[in-house]
Design brief:
Blueprint: H1 3-31, H2 34-40, H3 46-60, H4 63-76, H5 81-94, H6 96-102, H7 115-132, H8 136-162, H9 169-177, H10 181-195, H11 198-209, H12 216-229, H13 231-237, H14 243-274, H15 285-303, H16 307-317, H17 342-369, H18 376-404, H19 410-446, H20 452-478, H21 481-510, H22 516-547, H23 551-562, H24 566-579
């Protein structure tokens, strides 16, 4: 090969890899994130897992990408480890679609229409759609056609550049050495590990087969090695994942190694006795595609009944990891692998907000309990849980910041903004819980307590505050509009309730029933209760805004604030009767 051939080969490889990447991106844009989202909601049926894994991989053109997503699912708790095995097996089958597409490069048409002419026509149609169509869907189709033509042009360029190799003495000696199955398998593994795509490496092998110098004796074990090499990017992606995330990556490796061993042992034993004649024949692009598909389908059929053994093997390899805050802080929910798939990232962000809300509400309830029965141990737990809430705020805030830089659509931007607003209010609720716990500790250390009337006021106000926090949590967790509508009326009742509590305390202070020292504590307690109710109101309005994301919402919110809505008046009367002992007019 001369310098011109080497440059042509490198250029063809560049076009090939770029076309493959562009094709995968274009297909993902057309499919949206629906296929990826379905993966996360997969049932435990392994056959469905295989079919779905094959479908998704055929669309995004990469078994590694599918498996990396699955590692993210398992790592974040969306999917069970046992459910992931079927998808991994299906991903191996789905990736064979690329090798079949590449066989088109060998197809010649009639009447002077070569494959190059067809690809040029496809490229022209693609560029017309991409530049002259206004709809994004049509532009994406144009991008797919362009990517396909670039991919196939690169394939043909590589094949042409490699043509002189069939008479190159050094190359023929190298191929002769590679006729050893283990050497060929190792070469396939290393090449794929570097390129990080079995589809790309098999495409290169198919281009090389056009020289006629590659026999099936070399091609077959090389394909097996390429399957194993495809595990490298998945293993790298599992660095930093939890135990189950790492186990998912290891299962992918074991599946390909076991499949290769189960094929090579009986096949080469039979070859040694029967001497398969086709092994010495030149491999074709079609033959490589056939073997690639047959091997992966057979490996799946053989190992599918033994998925439990693969899971067990992975669990023995990767031991369970314990985290100090395992029960409280679920950092793995926010997996960076999902940032490229905004719907999944937002879904996980929502799960994190729900967990954060649970921790904040639990903190508030525990802090209120300290006023009647103080416990130093419970006080320390409240402080520890506050650190967990702060970690949620920092981690989720940073995650959403990175997500917002990924070009979200209008709805996704609204949801992201919704979560950002809510996490701020939830963190402030937990802050007020710590403040209340501090007041309870101060009362305990100073030996002061509420009078019977003061304790009654505290219990009534605390009951209303705990209810509004529970309502806000339920509205946020379930995105329940009906529950969200109850928060604002209760917030107004709490405001009236706390004002009455303050006035009654002043009277008790004037009559000498309560001390001035306790008065400062009660004043701080009332202020914290008011702020908690206000933050709950913000959360409920954020839930309503997410549902009614239009200009009319601001008029609606203003009406709610002013009590102009019938639903508001209904619940206002209900909570007035419940906490202010006023006659109820609510039906």
């Amino acid at each position: 090969m001369g310098i011109a051939d080497i440059i042509s080969l490198l250029g063809g490889l560049a076009f090939f890899l770029f076309g493959m990447t562009l094709l995968g991106d274009g297909l993902k844009k057309v499919a949206g994130s629906k296929l990826e989202t379905v993966l996360g909601k997969l049932t435990s049926n392994p056959i469905k897992g295989v079919l779905l894994g094959a479908l998704v991989t055929a669309v995004i053109q990469s078994s590694s990408a599918t498996t990396v997503m699955v590692v993210g699912f398992v790592n974040s708790g969306i999917m069970q480890l046992s459910n992931a095995v079927g998808i991994i097996m299906g991903a191996n089958i789905g990736t064979t679609a690329t090798s079949w597409v590449l066989t088109l490069a060998d197809v010649e048409g009639q009447g002077g229409f070569t494959s190059a002419t067809v690809f040029a026509l496809i490229a022209f149609i693609g560029i017309v759609l991409y530049f002259f169509c206004r709809r994004q869907g049509q532009k994406n189709v144009g991008l797919i056609l362009l990517a396909f033509s670039v991919l196939m042009s690169g394939m043909q360029t590589m094949s042409s550049a490699m043509d002189p190799l069939k008479s190159n003495e050094a190359f023929l000696q190298f191929i002769s050495a590679a006729s050893n199955p283990m050497v060929s398998l190792l070469i396939g593994t290393l090449v794929t590990a570097v390129i990080q795509s079995s589809s790309a490496s098999i495409g290169i092998l198919q281009a090389l087969s056009a020289t006629g110098a590659i026999s099936y004796e070399v091609a077959i074990p090389m394909v097996l090695g390429m399957c194993i090499g495809a595990c490298v990017p998945v293993l790298l992606s599992a660095i930093g994942a939890n135990a189950n995330g790492k186990r998912t990556a290891v299962i992918y490796l074991y599946f390909n190694i076991v499949g290769s061993v189960l094929f090579m042992a009986p096949f080469y034993l039979a070859h040694a006795f029967m001497n398969f004649g086709f092994m010495a024949q030149p491999a074709s692009s079609m033959g490589i595609a056939v073997f690639n598909t047959v091997f992966k389908v057979a490996a799946t059929l053989v190992q599918l009944p033994f998925t439990a053994l693969l899971v067990r093997l992975a669990m023995l390899t990767i031991k369970e990891e314990k985290s100090e805050d395992e029960e409280e802080f679920e950092e793995n929910l926010l997996d960076e692998r999902f940032l490229d798939y905004p719907p999944l990232a937002l879904e996980q962000s929502g799960r994190t907000v729900v967990r954060m809300a649970s921790a904040a509400v639990k903190n508030l309830n525990r802090s209120i309990e300290l006023f009647t029965t103080f416990s130093g141990e419970k006080y320390e737990k409240i402080l520890g849980r506050e650190n967990v809430v702060d970690r949620y705020e920092d981690t989720l805030g940073s995650y959403l910041f990175h997500l917002n830089s990924r070009g979200l659509n209008e709805r996704e931007t609204l949801v992201s903004s919704h979560y950002l607003h809510c996490l701020t209010d939830l963190e402030r609720i937990s802050d007020h819980a710590v403040n209340l716990a501090g007041l309870a500790k101060e009362m305990d250390s100073k030996g002061v307590s509420f009078s019977p009337d003061g304790l009654e006021d505290l219990n009534r106000s605390a009951g209303a505050v705990m209810e509004i926090v529970s309502l806000a949590q339920q509205a946020l967790t379930e995105e329940d509009i009906d529950v969200a509508l109850q928060v604002e009326p209760l917030e107004e009742v709490i405001s009236t309730l706390l004002e009455g509590m303050k006035l009654r305390h002043i009277r008790r202070l004037q009559s000498g029933v309560c001390t001035l020292e306790l008065g400062f504590i009660i004043n701080d307690l009332i202020n914290n209760f008011e702020r908690v109710a206000a933050h709950c109101s913000n959360v409920a309005l954020a839930v309503l805004e997410l549902r009614y994301a239009d200009l009319q919402f601001h008029n609606y919110a203003r009406g709610v604030r002013q009590g102009d809505q019938p639903e508001f008046r209904k619940w206002l009367a209900f909570y007035q009767a419940k906490y202010l002992k006023l006659p109820s007019t609510a039906s």
